[in-house]
Design goal:
alpha/beta; Rossmann fold; eight-stranded mixed β-sheet; 8 strands
């Protein structure tokens, strides 16, 4: 049961039949790891906190730069030069002091991913390079943790739900393969990105996170977790379409049937 002041705070959720009191309590008891506190992670964090996700783990080794302020909505000019995890923690404390927050300013990789992600109910990855994304995906499979992977560039974005630890479901590596294990990839510094586009992707990722958490711990009223569904967002049209990702029998991340 939630205390009276929390019931008032989340009243607009609780009156939704798809969430209700049981669903809100499930969100309050959930532990979500957010990898990357940039253009996707910033708005996603705001709406995860707004949804009352009770335990948030923030992972990012970067510092706030002035160029981030165009789209990374939790930071202000006073945060420039400071670590993103520290600035994000400050924002969360000002927003909702009841949330449990852990921060890690280590760069996540194959050597520490399992440690940083272990014990989560869900990982939301909004980082900016494939090597990190694949390390996160592999660790999620090993630790049997669902993964939401989100990316954005220019006027396009994507959000996909993966559960490669399940025998019949793909992991992120099934989707992109092994060719992207290197650090070299396009960045928004080179290609540009519309700030509001990052916001759309981050907000949609947060909504999908609520969907996944409710599917397992709450009412399930928002439907299933949509494993293997990749949602493609186009800000120029605007439009959204959905693809289905198949499990790769030869995938070295999930073993094509590990579970």
């Amino acid at each position: 049961m939630l205390p009276p002041e929390r019931l008032d705070r989340f009243a607009r959720h609780i009156v939704l039949p798809e969430i209700g009191g049981a669903g809100q309590a499930a969100l309050a008891g959930a532990r979500v790891v957010l990898v990357g506190l940039g253009g996707i992670g910033s708005p996603a964090l705001q709406y995860l906190a707004g949804a009352g996700i009770g335990r948030l783990v923030l992972v990012d080794d970067d510092r706030v730069d002035a160029s981030n302020l165009q789209r990374q909505t939790i930071y202000t000019e006073r945060d420039v030069g400071h670590g993103k995890t520290v600035a994000a923690h400050r924002w969360l404390n000002n927003f909702d002091g009841e949330l449990s927050i852990s921060i890690h300013d280590d760069r996540i990789g194959p050597d520490n991913a399992a440690t940083l992600l272990g014990g989560a109910d869900l990982v939301l990855d909004g980082c900016d390079n494939f090597a990190t994304r694949l390390a996160v995906s592999d660790a999620c499979v090993t630790e049997r943790i669902p993964l939401l992977s989100a990316a954005v560039g220019r006027f396009q974005g994507q959000v996909g739900a993966f559960a490669g630890h399940l025998p019949d479901q793909p992991c992120y590596r099934c989707y992109v393969g092994d060719a992207f294990d290197a650090e070299d990839c396009d960045t928004c510094a080179e290609d540009g990105v519309l700030g509001a586009m990052a916001g759309w992707v981050g907000c949609f990722a947060a909504m999908q996170a609520v969907r996944v958490l409710l599917a397992f711990g709450g009412s399930g009223g928002m439907g299933g977790p949509q494993w293997g569904k990749l949602h493609l967002l186009d800000g120029l049209m605007p439009s959204m379409r959905t693809l289905s990702i198949a499990k790769d029998p030869a995938c070295r991340g999930c073993g094509g049937g590990a579970g």
